[in-house]
Structures are given as structure tokens and as C-alpha cells.
Specification:
Radius of gyration: 19 Å
CATH class of the domain at 6-167 and 202-226 and 260-304: Alpha Beta
CATH superfamily of the domain at 6-167 and 202-226 and 260-304: NAD(P)-binding Rossmann-like Domain
Largest sheet: 10 strands, mixed
Oligomer: single chain
Shape: globular
Number of strands: 16
Helix content: 25-40%
Structural class: alpha/beta
CATH topology of the domain at 6-167 and 202-226 and 260-304: Rossmann fold
Strand order of the largest sheet: 3-2-1-4-5-6-9-14-13-15
Length: 332
């Protein structure tokens, strides 16, 4: 599907973009991949990595700017929406800015994709959009709802929208692993709460889930990858086994455990070998055989949380992953 196509990724200079672009170029050989983002320096640095590859293009722009989106989407077949204001405390202290990017930006992109006849759009979501406890999660829940409803909003147009949702991305810029690595030699690791757990997914797994969504989607689905959990105290032991751990308390808007599927979504959720799929509650789409596509309905009281997950990552497994990826962790 993606071969010889034009793909645009919003927020493409982030951690996801730095993994999605080379993997997609290698496996699918698209005609063009457009990096759409607002930070010129990040684009300048990223351009060095792809120097000489005429398939990679860069486009300065903000998802808040509807007119710029219309220009950037000219001739684009597929869109990955990765742009977001995502740091939880930052969103709490800058709520207007968070809403402008995560909600208004989503609305702008949906309108522009429909009008520019984009074929399919996959938006990246987060565990924090499930039963949100902070503003970032609330804006991403609103964004998810917008992309799901975008399939009916498109009317007679053929543009289709879907969402992928996953938890803590291992080694991504600003995440806990590079933070712990940066302070490991200080002999003390700050832990917000000893009970805290997190899902663990690699950037490569996230890219593969987006590819699957493009291939499988009918429109309105939310894809949730099956991934292992880990206690934050064990994560700290994997990174810095000699360091002591200091409990500092949960930050504003932070959750004790990550949740990707709540009981309110269970009625519309189906299980597959490697993922779950939350189908749209609107228009009876959750009973559509094409969207179900062989899935098994989950129990009515089903939840998918990092503390009730049957799959757990060991300290040794994470330590081995860190050793293999140390040169890339936190670099983008």
C-alpha cells in the first residue's frame, strides 16, 4: 500500500519520526516522505541524516496553521499524525497551548485531509487518553474522538481515519529511560511511587503498529498493541543497579498505572493475536464484520492496564535492550 506513495508525517522530527522514516523507506520504498514540523533546527539536524535521499522532504509548518496544512498535503496519499504537546507537567501549566496543538490541530488536519483527498490517516494516541487524569490525556481523548468521527464527517469523500494507542516508548526523547541513564552516576534515582507500573514498547513496534493500521483499517478503529509491563522500581534497577532509590511523590497529573483500554470501551473491543482493536461506538460500526475482521470480543468488565497485564518485562530483558540500543537512547 505504501509503496510508491506520498506520505506526510506531522511532528516528524520527534522520536517516532526518526524511526518511522528510515524503516518505511527501507521496507516500502515510498515515492516521497514529507516531514512536517515547526522546529527548523530539528529539521536541519534530521536532514543531515537523510542527505542525498531525494525521497525525504522537509516542510516547516504547524498543525495549528490550517492554510499551511492545505499546502503541505497537496498530492499526499497517507498521513501519520505524530505532532503533539505531550509532556504532562508542561500541559498542566500551559493548558491553552496544549489545547491549540492537540485539539485544534487535530481538527485542522482532519479538515485538510478530507479536502485534499488524502486516502488514509493514522493518528498516534497515548495510554493517557484512556480515563484521562491530566490535561494532556483529556486533549488526546478529544483528539481520538475527532479522528474516529472524522470518518462520518468526511461524508462522500474517501478519506479514512484510524488511531493507534500505546504506552511508554522505550528510549524516546524525554522519557524515563534516558532520564535515569543521565543521572545513574549520581548514585540516587528519584522514584515518584514504589507501586508505579508502565507499559513498555519500542519505537520499532510502534511503527509496525502504524503499518498494520494502514493495511487493516476500515475507518474509526483504535489499535492497541499487546506489550509487557514493568514496575518503575525494576526499571530503575535495570538502568542503575548500584544506585539507591528515593521516593519523591507523583507529579501533577501523573497516573500510578497506565491504562490503554477501560471498561467503558470493553463493549466495543476485540482481541487479536498481537493487539486489541477498539471499534467506534457510533453508527453501529462496532458490529461491522469488516471492522471486526476475525477478532474475539473481550469480556464486558475487561480493562488493559499496566498493573493487571499478564505479560511482564524482566530486569535482565530491559538491561539487554539498553545495551543493544545505548547509542540511540534519548538521541531523538
Amino acid at each position: 500500500m505504501l509503496t510508491n506513495s506520498s506520505i506526510l508525517i506531522t511532528g516528524g522530527t520527534g522520536s517516532f519520526g526518526h524511526t518511522f522514516v528510515p524503516m518505511t523507506l527501507e521496507k516500502h520504498n515510498p515515492k516521497k516522505v514529507i516531514i512536517y514540523s515547526r522546529d527548523e533546527m530539528k529539521q536541519w539536524e534530521m536532514a543531515k541524516r537523510f542527505a542525498g535521499d531525494k525521497r525525504v522532504r522537509f516542510f516547516i509548518g504547524d498543525v495549528r496553521d490550517r492554510e499551511r496544512l492545505y499546502r503541505a498535503l497537496d498530492g499526499v496519499d497517507y498521513v501519520v499524525h505524530a505532532a503533539a504537546t505531550k509532556i504532562v507537567p508542561t500541559a498542566e501549566y500551559n493548558p491553552f497551548e496544549c489545547v491549540k496543538t492537540n485539539v485544534i490541530g487535530a481538527m485542522n488536519l482532519i479538515d485538510a485531509c478530507i479536502d485534499k483527498k488524502v486516502k488514509r490517516v493514522v493518528a498516534l494516541s497515548t495510554d493517557k487518553a484512556s480515563s484521562p487524569a491530566n490535561l494532556y490525556g483529556a486533549t488526546k481523548l478529544a483528539s481520538d474522538k475527532l479522528f474516529v468521527a472524522g470518518n462520518s464527517y468526511a461524508g462522500g469523500h474517501d478519506t479514512r481515519f484510524a488511531v493507534v494507542r500505546y504506552g511508554n516508548v522505550m528510549g524516546s526523547r524525554g522519557s524515563v529511560i534516558p532520564f535515569f541513564l543521565s543521572i545513574a552516576n549520581k548514585g540516587k534515582i528519584p522514584i515518584t511511587d514504589a507501586r508505579m507500573t508502565r507499559f513498555m514498547i519500542s519505537l520499532e513496534q510502534g511503527v509496525e503498529l502504524v503499518w498494520h493500521a494502514f493495511e487493516d483499517m476500515v475507518g474509526g478503529e483504535i489499535y492497541v498493541k499487546k506489550i509487557p509491563s514493568m514496575k518503575v522500581t525494576d526499571l530503575a534497577l535495570a538502568v542503575a543497579p548500584e544506585a539507591s532509590q528515593e521516593i519523591i511523590g507523583i507529579r501533577p497529573g501523573e497516573k500510578l498505572h497506565e491504562q490503554m483500554i477501560g471498561t467503558e470501551d470493553a463493549l466495543h473491543t476485540y482481541e487479536y493475536a498481537e493487539h486489541f482493536k477498539i471499534l467506534p461506538a457510533i453508527h453501529n460500526w462496532s458490529s461491522d464484520p469488516d471492522r471486526i475482521n476475525g477478532g474475539k470480543k473481550v469480556a464486558e468488565d475487561f480493562t488493559y492496564c499496566s498493573d493487571n497485564n499478564p505479560d511482564w518485562m524482566s530486569i535482565d530483558t530491559l538491561r539487554a535492550w539498553i545495551d543493544q540500543n545505548r547509542d540511540k537512547i534519548g538521541s531523538f
